[in-house]
Amino acid sequence: MSKKYSAEIICVGTELLLGDILNTNTRFLSKELASIGINVYHQSVVGDNYERLADSVRLALSRADIIITSGGLGPTYDDITKETVCEIMGSELVMDEEVKNTIVGFFQRMGRKMTDNNFKQALVPVDGVALHNENGTAPGIMINKNNKLVFMLPGPPRELEALYKAKVYPVLSSLDSGNILFSKNINIFGMGESAVEDALKNIMKTSLNPTVAPYAKDGEVLLRVTASAPDKASAESLADKAISDIASVVGDCIYGIDGESLQNVLVKRFSEKGLTISTAESCTGGLVSKRITEIPGSSSIFGCGICSYSNETKMNVLGVKKETLESFGAVSAQTAEEMAAGVQSLSGSDVSVAITGIAGPDGGTDEKPVGLVYISARYKDKVLTERFVFGRSKNEREYIRFLASSWALAMALKITDSFSPAFHE
Amino acid sequence: MSKKYSAEIICVGTELLLGDILNTNTRFLSKELASIGINVYHQSVVGDNYERLADSVRLALSRADIIITSGGLGPTYDDITKETVCEIMGSELVMDEEVKNTIVGFFQRMGRKMTDNNFKQALVPVDGVALHNENGTAPGIMINKNNKLVFMLPGPPRELEALYKAKVYPVLSSLDSGNILFSKNINIFGMGESAVEDALKNIMKTSLNPTVAPYAKDGEVLLRVTASAPDKASAESLADKAISDIASVVGDCIYGIDGESLQNVLVKRFSEKGLTISTAESCTGGLVSKRITEIPGSSSIFGCGICSYSNETKMNVLGVKKETLESFGAVSAQTAEEMAAGVQSLSGSDVSVAITGIAGPDGGTDEKPVGLVYISARYKDKVLTERFVFGRSKNEREYIRFLASSWALAMALKITDSFSPAFHE
User: Fold this and answer.
1) Contacts of A22 in chain B (CB under 8 A)
2) To the nearest whole angstrom, how far is the Cα of A185 from the nearest Cα of chain B?
3) What pLDDT does residue B420 have?
4) Bond prior to B361 in cis (omega within 30° of 0)
């Protein structure tokens, strides 16, 4: 009997409807439920309003096996989650002496005065269970009735997360769903989302287990491969088989499996190989060095970055020749190459990357438009220089800079044979 | 005729149901709608599944005047928002030649190959309007029909937020024909959100027009002052009166009105004063130079940034003395001051800022904990050096680096008498 359970999350709170706070509870619960193979098909948010909350709960009960609510368990008159849910479930609320004593004890320890409304928190449905909350006065509530499993959790994330782990997870993870889920992420760079999907459409459409889902972000594509199997080893083996199929099609553009980011993979590969890198940046203004130094431990592979925004810095610090700037301009393959050579020599690093371009919105010409970027990578005496035109529209300064920084990281990986993306012109 | 409108937000995306990403779009849209007096009673999330999405849209149409969806406008087969919503609204989709040309142009500029599925994005409902998306290929869609106003926006937050501001806000803010709304933003740095709220509680609670709403982000507080009046001049005058009241309480920490960011204000003020700046960064790894060069036109005030991550670079490029590093360590006021002097002398800039610290997660000691940062600013011969301990918990590397970069920008403003934040020790 391997049933696939579905859950629905309802967050109760006007502060969410007003956008005052980010809904981290829904994300936390969704991630937890996914990790134990419970499907979440709906998430919703309603205010502390009896009718709208009651409608949302009825709708959830009509379409999910498990309902988890967050918020509205406090002592004040507008905290109505427990009262509303219990009314719909036909569960009478009675004073729970144990919970009442816990609350009284909590106030004594805190030296705070109790008010009558605090006792509201000790009301527990006769056919339900109070879930002791280590971090606050409002206990959670569980009701298992009419083939529906309902959990009501407090709203503060610290309380909700601790209570989920202590009291909800043990119940849900023991539901006999038969299978566990296992995911791996494939990191792709150098190919757009639709091109990836087009290349992989046969695999993506036909593969039901594992499933393959693409996520595009910041010029990269992440493919999540999720396998379902009775145990982790079998699930992982299913996932690995799919990854190998995918790699046979778009392998050139895969820079990592669960690699997280280009800079993370770069720091890892360079550390393994004992290589060091330095950077010389014009239009990206330090973004490449910022991304590399995001990674803890990057100091073992990176020591020097020059942001040579002006021609003076290009000449005085990096040793770019005046004639090069005059003959070819600051945005040219020649300048990029001299910048890379300059920072490599200044820092004594094995590898260097240099970027010069026009990030806009101004400064573009017909010959050298906004988005034109030259990137040069050096590894000892080996040189790789590429010309790019980035940008989807005007005023795409940050986008152009970010893509340029990504290609610089990718080219540093490429010149050291750590990754071979297809280059577009 | 002043009707109170209600809106419902539906986010479409399996990545939200799996808890892979935080739902920042819902928060953004809710906050925006609240600021113009539109009630949001329901927020929901569904996956890329026709039936569940269709049910959610029908439910939303039954209870709200305005529906805003996010996500599911991409080119791939699982992007179904537009098709589903248009079917329910009875709006036939037809190829829009203008949108098609925009997409073709985008691919041409990028030198990328189009695939058939990209044309799906050029389908627009016959009775709807395509909303041009500056930041991506998927246009937004607006349908105004049967007394319902429906907006479909792309999922990536950068695209959604820009499109909301450019195309949705103007429509929604003009719905209430009685008054126009006018907002100004006060930029506050150097004071936490609760301290700001506490200092301004009388103004914030009693002022109904204009309303004053605080937004905390990345160590700054933004106060949005929104006034409602029959014409722009009257609304602006109401807003300015409130801003002047607020400035009389927290003026020290106000670095701009509609200033956008510390780096934006810095580039503006330095340009006005004809000052130049250079940077020397250790733990921030280029983040300060990256932030300065984010701003178009920054090349007139900034030409040189040194990311001296290693001691060698501190000595060889910036001229930090070996004895200083040996006696006081790389993370010390003395090193910060020599770095600032070094980059000022190397670049010939009027002002310089230098940062050295321990961003973690490793490298901290009892004496020099993770989060310890020294920042030194120089203006000609004037020196201002401050010691900070940033961070809320361990592994707050990016948070520490970002706050350090913000204080560096703030100190460059302070030393040039452009801003006087209160300093904490």
Assistant:
1) 22-24, 27
2) 12
3) 64
4) yes
